[in-house]
Design a protein that fits this description.
With 536 residues, this protein is an alpha/beta fold. The chain has 23 helices and 14 strands. This is Malic enzyme.
Length: 536
């Protein structure tokens, strides 16, 4: 009863109560899991404040694991914004105040030289997925230090609920190297190291010890997902460890795959191929450059031209303006491939007027950047402009669904990072797309695990994007949707897992041999079920 993995609450049967000495420890009524689910949903809906709903869900996860996942799977559209973005952002900001039970592994500078020993303290010997953060860039909220743990916990809950990876095989980790957030350093309830962030050699040595300790303890095939690292570290870590470890960065690769899927499905509404379109990004960090790279890679797959040539229709704007070749000397390495020949331009509005993009994508982490003038300009030179305001949480979105539809006179296709409600414009109801990474990473992770892949390859990301795009039907297009509804997410994840696994086998990266004949069926069979088990 006190172990969340086994606890069923009032659903223990009369025979189970006798067999396991539970008689008298519970009220006499026996409830079904379905009735428990109904009761819990009624309770959660009574909370008007999203953070209170989050606390209730985490409380349930800590006491009755199977009921938690049953709720999440059966009510995914309602509860996903509660356990993940946007509510998880506020939860991380207040994590010290709401912290009750430790849900993952904390590795701080205090553990330097003892990380392998620390990993062995985790009670599960077998781990297949690790989500790790250092808390430096949590969503669009900045440095939250040790309190970033809400992100790995939330992501792994989705690995289980949406991708069917068993919760016992998941390990959330926060690496605490300090924080530069003065507010947290002065907060008496802060749960992390009270020091400025370690950088340079000290940081690199800790991360290197961590990566090799993980491989030593859990083997070659544990998937390590980097989450919410600052730009400079995110690119560096992915480049450094992608050839020696099974690593995946959701902010760079997951975001890119889900956005590419939206673009591929939007082509049915826009017409033409990706190569026929002009892309303009606001934001040239992990998400922006990651998406741009995957778009260029997919165009190269389609037309056979070098990736350098296919980058020419993809433009990026950062805080200093349009990224052009005259700025190349001062640019960070990951921005340099996007420095094209053009006169310098400052300000997004001027870039929109000069480049005349067909597709506008926001990954800036700064809200309200797609102004009325910008959206009206997009609508003036495009019959159907595609506007993707991807920054999270909702408060940081570059524009709202209502603004995009109204300012474009109902002609825009709109997608965002956080959810927006359907919007009616002149008698037509538009359903905004949500370019949520939750579409990709759970199915992607399941596919990697199924195949026993030893590395992540870009071909697997392209396979995941195409699998997601293929799930959008004519019925969805009629409502302006470029992503399928999240209600079918387990079916979607099984299809993504099958395509990712197939690509791993094709590339010779899979170790689970022979390859199953029906990979979709194989994915569905190995998915975790939250239905209560009998203990007789």
């Amino acid at each position: 009863m006190r172990d969340p993995r086994y606890n069923k609450g009032l659903a223990f049967t009369e025979k189970e109560r006798d067999a396991h000495y539970l008689r008298g420890l519970l009220p006499p009524v026996v409830l079904s899991q379905e009735l428990q689910e109904k009761k819990m949903m009624n309770l959660i809906r009574q909370y008007e404040v999203p953070l209170h709903r989050y606390i209730a869900m985490i409380g349930l996860q800590e006491t009755n694991e199977r009921l938690f996942y049953k709720l999440l799977i059966d009510n995914v559209e309602e509860l996903l914004p509660v356990v993940y973005t946007p509510t998880v952002g506020e939860a991380c900001q207040k994590y010290g105040s709401i912290f009750k039970h430790s849900q993952g592994l904390y590795i701080s500078l205090k553990e330097k030289g003892k990380i392998l020993e620390t990993l062995k303290n985790w009670p599960k010997r077998t781990v297949q997925v690790i989500v790790v953060t250092d808390g430096e860039r949590i969503l669009g909220l900045g440095d939250l230090g040790c309190q970033g743990m809400g992100i790995p916990v939330g992501k792994l809950a989705l690995y289980t609920a949406l991708g069917g990876v068993r919760p016992s095989l998941c390990l959330p980790i926060t690496i605490d190297v300090g924080t530069n957030n003065e507010k947290l350093l002065n907060d008496e309830f802060y749960i992390g190291l009270r020091q400025k962030r370690a950088t340079g050699k000290e940081y690199d040595e800790l991360l290197q010890e961590f990566m090799y300790a993980v491989k030593q303890n859990y083997g070659e095939k544990v998937l390590i997902q980097f989450e919410d690292f600052a730009n400079h570290n995110a690119f560096e870590l992915l480049a450094r460890y992608s050839s020696s470890h099974l690593v995946f960065n959701d902010d760079i690769q997951g975001t890119a795959a889900v956005v590419l899927a939206g673009l591929l499905s939007a082509l049915r509404l826009l017409g033409g191929t990706l190569a026929d379109h002009t892309f303009l990004f606001l934001g040239a960090g992990e998400a922006g450059t990651g998406i741009a790279d995957l778009i260029a890679l997919e165009i190269s797959e389609q037309n056979g031209k070098p990736i350098e040539e296919n980058r020419k229709n993809i433009w990026l704007v950062d805080s200093k303006g349009l990224i052009v070749s005259s700025r190349k000397e001062s640019l960070q390495d990951f921005k340099k491939p996007w420095a094209h020949e053009h006169e310098p331009i400052t300000g997004l509005i001027n870039a929109v007027k000069a480049i005349k993009p067909t597709i506008l994508i926001g990954t800036s982490g700064v809200g309200k950047q797609f102004t009325k003038e910008i959206v009206e300009d997009m609508a003036s030179f495009n019959k159907t402009p595609l506007i993707m305001a991807l920054s999270n949480p909702t408060s940081q979105a570059e524009c709202t669904a209502e603004e995009a539809y109204t300012w474009s006179e109902g002609r825009a296709i709109f997608a965002s990072g956080s959810p927006f409600d359907p919007f009616e414009y002149e008698g037509k109801t538009f359903v905004p797309g949500q370019a949520n990474n939750a579409y990709i990473f759970p199915g992607f992770g399941l596919g990697v695990i199924m195949a026993g892949s030893i590395r992540v390859h870009n071909g697997m990301l392209l396979a995941a994007s195409k699998a997601l795009a293929s799930q959008v039907t004519e019925e969805h297009y009629e409502k302006g949707m470029i992503y399928p509804p999240l209600t079918n997410i387990r079916k979607i994840s099984a299809n993504i897992a099958a395509e990712v696994a197939a690509k791993a086998y094709e590339l010779g990266l899979a170790s689970h041999l022979p390859q199953p004949e029906d990979l979709v069926e194989s994915a569905e069979k190995c998915m975790y079920s939250p239905v209560y088990r009998s203990y007789l």
